[in-house]
Specification:
Blueprint (H helix, E strand, L loop, with lengths): L2 H21 L23 H19 L14 H17 L7 H15 L14 H32 L1
Helix pairs in contact: 2-3, 2-4
Length: 165
């Protein structure tokens, strides 16, 4: 046998052995397609029904906010429970009709509600000022003196332990 014949036989033999070995490793040959459980089909979001449900939630919120004095619309403590019910209503109804929450439609409706009720609520910025110089001096010196006192106490106790020992 010549070298070319031997190398050709080796290549053919290695390819045959390789195909035998990998045949058992292939996942597609041993799968019964009928045995694979099918995923349930996902229902699409019905946006018309979603908007209708948001209107129902919004009407309930508007009805409850009618009992809150408009001067208190910017004070969250006066309507937090009403807003919680509104938020829960939108989330529950969106989930019930197979829509994720929040989504752009729900967000736009909530923004409309906010513009209607809370557009006059301005955020008052707190202007931070430094404390008076006397107060600032006391606040700085107290920890400095406490640190010095602790150092003196440690040094004094270490000298006393030498005498007591």
């Amino acid at each position: 046998m010549t070298t070319n014949t031997v190398s050709s036989l080796c290549v053919i033999l290695s390819l045959t052995v390789n195909s035998w070995m990998t045949r058992g490793l292939s996942a597609t040959e041993n799968i019964n397609v009928e045995s694979i459980p099918r995923r349930p089909s996902v229902a699409l979001c019905n946006e018309t029904q979603l908007l209708s449900e948001m209107e129902v939630c919004g009407e309930g919120f508007k009805r409850e906010m009618a009992y809150v004095d408009p001067q208190n619309w910017c004070n969250l403590t006066h309507f937090i429970s009403v807003y919680h019910v509104f938020s829960l209503c939108t989330e529950t109804n969106a989930g019930r009709i197979n829509c994720y929450w929040p989504n752009p439609l729900v967000e736009s409706y909530i923004i409309r509600i906010h513009k209607h009720f809370f557009s006059n609520c301005t955020l008052e910025r707190v202007i931070l000022v430094d404390p008076p110089d006397d107060t600032l001096t006391i606040l700085i010196l107290i920890p400095v003196f406490l640190t010095l006192a602790m150092i003196a106490l440690v040094v004094w106790c270490s000298k006393r332990s030498d005498i007591l020992a």
